[in-house]
Amino acid sequence: MTARSASGWRVVYFGTPEVAVAPLQALYRAGHDVALVVTRPPRRRGRRQAPTPSPVEDAAAVLGLKVTHDVKDAVAVEANLGVVVAYGEYIGDDVLEPRRTVNLHFSQLPRWRGAAPVERAILAGDTETGVCLMEVASEIDTGAVYRRASAGIGPEETADELRTRLCELGIGLLLDALAEGFGEPVPQAGEMTWADKIEPGELRIDWSAPAEHVLRLVRVGGAWTVYRGRRLKVLEARLATGSGLPGTISLVPGSGGSTAVEAGSGEGALELVTVQSEGRAAAGARDWANGARLTGGEQFDQ
Fold first, then answer.
1. What counts of helices (H) and strands (E) characterise the chain?
2. Residue 211 to residue 239: CA distance in whole angstroms
3. What is the pLDDT of residues 32-44, one digit of tens each?
């Protein structure tokens, strides 16, 4: 054991995106010996950009931790715990067998097993979700649960905001288990729902739906519509007090005497705050409307 593993936990960490950075840092700061970090290979963030390391790889480099892109490298590592947070690839039995491996999953299992539990909870209109510290099993997200915590979902909370909050709760569960012991996990019970990965087509706005439903798409991230034949992303919005025909765009008075962009829906209206035209940078909706010389009565999806 090294000086950093005096607690008895020597860890192999599996993670890739930004949400997996904070748990890795927390393990390190708590004095646990992170023997190896397994993450996805560098990838291009844009068509013309060179491949860049994952956020977890960047964080591991700052901490001076050993990194690999090959999950098989974890098999031979002498460690007594594996920790998985949004790794993004299947981990086979041969990698799991040498040690106990646990996962932070951002839902109240068995509700929302799968790749997109936070997004699916928002899209379904759930008012509560949670995070589970669970054992990793061969079948995805079926493992028994060591610890869990619940959290409400704010009516305008975005997926990124909710995921960050759940991650903070999950870090507490993980560190408590490491300090106090894991105990016996409890098998999942109740109705199972599946959280498939969100496909781009699902995020196209249906303006015949109620404004509350449209807002859920915006909160998930990546919501889009079509304006004058080009794709327009709606990055930020809020429910409006006005009403209008589905998809009809208008300029309406906003707070402080400013002008906001309002879009009618099947029930109620949505006030657009930040949008992004295809091939352009994000902009305030008012600036976009001025630049587009928007006229009253125009509609999206045309």
1. 7, 15
2. 7
3. 999 999 999 998 8
